[in-house]
Amino acid sequence: MGFVKLDTGILDSTLWIEKDQRDVFITALLMAEPREFNEPQPQIEVDSMVPTGFVVPPGWYGFCAAAGSGIIRRSLTEHFSGMKALRELGSPDPESRTKTFEGRRLIRINGGYIVLNYMSYRDRDYGAAERMRRLRERRKTQHLENVRRNSDTVPRNDTQAESREQRAEEVQNPSRAKAARATKTALSDIRHADFKEAIRRYWDSKNPGVQMPWGPMEGKQLGMWLREAPDITLEQFTGMLRGRYKSDVNHGDRPAQWIRWITSWGPSPVDRFNKPIQEGKNGSHKSVTGERVSDNLKAIAAAAQRRGVPGFDGIGGGDSKALPKPGPDGFSGGDHAGSRTVGPEILAPEGSKGAGGSAH
């Protein structure tokens, strides 16, 4: 079923003064339906087939597929008065408020009548701005109610409470919330840069002359770690790097491979078996595994001595020999006996000195 919107401005138009024109025009509006014309439509005289010379350009209009007498009959207007009204509605009106089509309102074409300003009034939406304003206020109110309801009914920790309060603040004061986010982001960037600098000092101490690889993966891993441990201080983080510095690990691995595991070196250094290393005197370190290997070697030497194996007449004295500690390439000479020394400790705490010796 078709419909039509009637603009209240019609009360102040010249059309409203003439009763017959008004009745015929409103009746044609009610009978019309939207239709698109792809070709120009020449106007025809109301009471003959003679073209008037006026042509309607292609476009969307209201089309009333009825003869003039049909429109007049439905408007309950006398035939003579109705035909006169149709002629006047299709003629230029110099006093019309709308200068489009020279003031013409309703014209006859082949097949019916066209309401010229039908679409312009149909597409108008005078209440759109007010409806959108009310919709935004309603959504804002609903969102605030949801935030308050969730904060009252759901168990939460301080982080969750702060997050909900921030969201409520963003709804009520978007400019202030945006400034707060910018400040928080700036502080996070500063913290990220400080921790990255600590990693760089560790790298330079173990890989002198080699540029530290730092790409998107390193930045992402460090950022994730900092978000998951927001209360870790730079001093604590440096202590973890110090533990890695003293550990039996590959110090040439790029940071993205081990940043997420940095807390593994917090309690103490570890050996290549990921076992804790006990720190001895003069900066030397003994691992539990290394001591076990050393004890086993001594036991083998003692057993060899009991069996009379040449070269094992005693342990640790005379010309006797203990089995050497296995190295990366098998058993090799040396008197480390499960201990090792580390090089100068660039990441050492303030006031302490690193141990001398060969770098590990």
> What class would the helix/strand composition place it in?
alpha+beta
Amino- and carboxy-terminal Cα gap:
90 Å
Low-confidence stretches: 314-323, 325-346, 348-360
Strand order of the largest sheet: 1-4-6-5
Helix content: 40-55%
Mean pLDDT: 77
Identify the overall geometry. rod-shaped
**Number of contiguous helices:** 10
- What pattern of helices and strands is seen along the backbone? HEEEEHHEEHHHHHHEEHEEE
- Counting structural domains, the number is 4
User: Largest sheet at a glance?
Assistant: 4 strands, antiparallel
Radius of gyration: 46 Å
Question: Approximately what portion of the residues adopt beta-strand conformation?
Answer: 5-15%
Instruction: State the total count of DSSP E strands.
Output: 11
Describe the structure in your own words.
The protein has 360 residues and is of the alpha+beta class. The chain has four domains: 8-122, no CATH class; 134-172; 183-279, no CATH class; 285-340, no CATH class. Helices cover 43% and strands 11% of the residues. The protein has helices at residues 19-31, 68-74, 79-89, 118-122, 128-153, 158-172, 174-206, 216-228, 234-245, 288-306; strands at residues 33-37, 41-44, 51-56, 59-64, 106-109, 112-115, 277-279, 285-287, 326-327, 330-331, 339-340. The strands form four sheets. Strands 1-4-6-5 form a four-stranded antiparallel β-sheet. It has a three-stranded antiparallel β-sheet with strand order 7-8-11. Strand 7 and strand 8 form a beta hairpin. It is rod-shaped, with a radius of gyration of 46 Å. The chain starts with 18 loop residues before the first helix and ends in a 20-residue tail after the last strand.
